[in-house]
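WARN no homologs supplied; continuing
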Amino acid sequence: MRRSIFISIVACSVLLADDRVELFGSNVETNGSVVNAYGNPIITYQGKILTAERLSYDRNTSIIEAEGNVTVFQDGKNHAISDYTKLNMDTDTRQSRPLYMIDHQTGLWISTKQSDACESQIDLASGMVSGCNSADPLWKIRFSSADYNTEKMWMNLYNARLYVEDVPLFYLPYFGYPTDKTRRSGLLIPTLGYSGSEGFYYQQPIYIAPQNWWDLELRPQIRTSRGSGLYTDFRFIDTPSSQGSIRTGYFKEQAEYAQERDLAHIKHYGYDIHYRHNAFLQEWFDMKLDGESGLYVNGSWMNDVDYLNLQGTDETQNITTSQVLSRINTYYSNEDDYLGMYLKHYQYLDRVDNSKTIQILPTLHYHHYLENLLGDHFLFNADTSVSNFYRPDGKRAIEGNVNIPLTLQTGLFDNTIDVSYTANASGRMIGFYGNVQSGESHNDYESGEYAQIDHTFKIGSSLVRSYGETTHVIAPEVAYTLAGARRYDGYYDRYHGACGVGNTNLACEFYTLQDPSDTLSLGLNNYLFKNGKQTLADRLSQNFRYDNIGNYYGELMNELELQIADAISYYNITAYDHDRARVTKEINSVGYKNGALSGALNHTYTDALRNGLAVYSSYWSGDISYQYNRYYRIFGLIAYDYHEKLMKRNEIGIMYSQRCLDLGIRFVQNNRPVLTNTNAGSSVNDSYIFLTLILKPIGGSEFNYKITNHQ
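OK structure emitted
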């Protein structure tokens, strides 16, 4: 029977429960249980739409056959193209030859000679995969066979060969990757490198994610001429308001490598802990509180700096500071009060022993927020803290502080001038425990008390005037602080005036009081706005101190932010010491960003007195980036220590980027610290060549070759 009208056929009971097959065509004929359709026929089934030049459906066997320009669409995300496709609805098997599939969300496509599928498993014959234009793909991976699981969204390629512009680059007997962003366990992309001193480098990350609230990454590594090790990262979210991570690492040197370079340790190990919780009192202890609570942990420890240097091949990204600060902060705050506890632990990487380093374990802090009385004319708040200064070897101390400022303020001349008076009362107590060091006596450490009251008078104003599109704001301020009564007792009385600059008495480690002095503070702030956008901010301040010895100037400070043009900005901080008649600090930064070209040039200069000696530093840094066209970007940076005559880092590179590929090369030189037996301040100057290859959306890696390794 032949019909020249649209027809819809509903699947019979041999199909899976509730599955429905509908066939539409302008030219449909039936032959027993088989329905054939021509003239742009369409079949819909299981959320899919299938079109072809000819379609047939057997109601008895539940088999669909499609021939000629076969296209399958699903959920508007994926579609497949073939010359011939056969589907068995009863057994849920599918055959296609040849087959082209594309994911429209990621742009990833696969082409193969033949596909055989059963339920969620698809077996593919030889073919290729790419994320680039299928007519002329910039990169492609050819394979001898492959399989794909539609439920797990995971593709496996066998005998995979990577080509870029038809040039073979890599061969892998096996390569697997996900086709969605679901977290899953498996192998991550390895990191490769080579160094003349360390040999071939290989790191293979292993990702474990059995549950959605935590995951674990294992990163075993081997350096064939140096040693091997393992770093791990454990990440977790234990409550809706928190998250954390724990990193541990261990690396063992080959004896010959360590001896040749006189390394202080043959084993390097350490840990890092990061944790943040925004409501720990409410969620851990089920406390019904009106305010908010928080917990912050940032802890690190390592036996030497090579724990950092060995975490990866790109040592240029590692921290080069000699001090590691670990902190644990916790607090509770409501509208009126704040309670906090802080712990600080210092580790100096250039010291073999930190047993005499003073730690703050902990500080207890209470603050009463500012309160306004008498129509906002009377202000007061209170602040108090207790700190435990601890170290394993040596004297320890417990010190308490209290500070209570009381302020009277008002406006004059229709509030164009603001005046205020503040009485600031403060006190301090200290007690000691622990053992004394060599050459000391317990008599050097007696408990002490200190109290003071200062008086501050302040007058200021904020004046605004418009000049067309430009608005000028000027805010002058004058403050005078009168050093009031002081009371010293015990420890504070004994070392008052004795713990000055250059004093090496160990007892002075705990003395932090400043000598009393009257202070005159002058401030002048200027701001310019054009069409509501700030173009200039200048903040000038000068202090004058008056004490029993005489009068002297404090440092003249000026901070400037200037938008020279839409593309050019300038920032400066300058500090001038009148007594030494010299600039003691200067920071200059010029930035440029306009279309394809951007860059910055920075210089930092300091000149400070330490133990009576002038110690200065001068540090230059700069970076530049030029987008040559839509594909090529050239970039570079430099960091130079002018005082030490040492190039800290320089880099130049080029990156080629398309929708489906990032390919780049860069040359890097970097100076990093190491810990040796003979010199705690040793450093190593490394030179690298980095090759970056990112296959979008699959991913990629960076290969580096270490050219030099000079200590």
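The helical segments are 255-260, 280-284, 306-309, 491-495.
OK
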